[in-house]
Amino acid sequence: MFSRSNPAGAPLIVIAGGGIGGLSLALKLHAAGIHEITIVEKSRFINPEVGAGLNVLPSAMNVLSELGLLSAVTGAGVAPSTQTYFTAQGLPICATARGLVLAPSGLPQVAIHRGKLHSILYGAVVERLGKSCMLRGAKVVGYRQDEEGVTVNVVDNTTDQPLPSLHAHVLVGADGIMSAIRKQVLGRDEGLPQASGVTLYRGMVKAPKFLDGVTFCSAGTSLHKLVIYPIAEVPVDDADGDAEPKQILNIVVEVPDISSHLEGSQPKKVDCDQVLRRLDDGPGGRFDLPFVDHRELLRQSQNLFEWTMWDRDPIFKWVDGRVVLMGDAAHPTYPLGSCGASMAMVDARELVALLTKHGIQGEGGLGGPH
Predict the structure, then answer these.
(1) Has domain 194-311 been given CATH number 2.40.30.20?
(2) From the centroid of its chain, how far is CA 299?
(3) What is the predicted pLDDT for the residue at 370?
(4) pLDDT per residue over 71-96, tens digit each?
(5) Residues whose CB falls within 8 Å of the CB of residue 200, separated by 6 or more in sequence, listed in order
(6) Which residue ranges does the record assign to the FAD-binding domain (predicted)?
């Protein structure tokens, strides 16, 4: 188990990255009785508007349930009952059950705004661990280890000026696809992530419910795809004086892009007409869905962004002594198939289970390659 002989005020565990994975890990550690935690996060402020819609799979909802956050997340999102596939002209192909419809005795799948989910996790961290557990506006750039623990090198995220080092028993790299910790764990520079040849355009809009209000709609082909699903119910008071029930819809357009390349880490805002032209320029023909006007939804979307899909080769070493990777730092995935956030939350649960079971094995660190 964990030794409590670390210097006064020093954390047992440093988490690099305060995203969904890092915050989930902090909460699971706290629930396991490990409270000496420092989260190093690049952003100085939490912005609940950052990101777009995502789906939390039942496996990750189980983690949220263990943390006492099930009702908060389900109340802030929409639980889809069906995923239905259509042609570009709206002809149904097939439908699959989701969440509670698929497993009535289990947990739901929840579609939710990424920023809202992040805010719920952040609020729980502040309430349970206190604001002082977070070092904001900073990033981890490296580490060194000895028999006493791991020294974590930290710099200001804006100026790159060195900040006081942190000393801990364990360092967890939850710092995403551009992870500096991953580079040191591997002992080599992988370079920039590889462009996948796929581009997503994502936006959100307040609109009347379509179909039954709980359907995840996917239309088109694997090369040119349109995805629409609700991520929040709009309270009646916020429905613009219209008695018709409304929701926040997440809209995704997926197209091939052989010229995709990495231009920094941020998505860029795009013109709606450009997106529509690219969507219709596919083998399935012009999109024309009879049950929803996707063109009008895209035009009304206030934040339509282009996201280039990046990838990294799989790695078979996630552990270096007292340092371990999780989430996109260990196994980055495209924001497709509801994998990224859900896998990070499951990582948090499994990592805490292993740490509390096996503890830290002296100079052997966390032990084993995984």
Answers:
(1) no
(2) 26
(3) 39
(4) 999 999 999 999 999 999 999 999 99
(5) 252, 253, 254, 306, 307, 309, 335
(6) 14-185, 298-358
**CATH topology for the 13-78+112-190+313-364 domain:** FAD/NAD(P)-binding domain (3.50.50)
Cα 133 to chain centroid distance, Å, stands at 21
342, pLDDT greater than 80: yes
Q: What is the pLDDT of residues 48-74, one digit of tens each?
A: 777 889 999 999 999 999 999 999 999
Q: Where in the chain is the domain with CATH 3.30.9.30?
A: 194-311
- Indicate if the alpha-carbon torsion angle 52, 55, 59, 64 is positive or negative: positive
In terms of Cβ atoms closer than 10 Å to its own Cβ (0-12, 13-18, 19+), residue 363 is exposed
CATH 3.50.50.60 residue ranges of the chain are 13-78+112-190+313-364
How far apart, in whole angstroms, are the C-alpha atoms of residue 49 and residue 17? 18
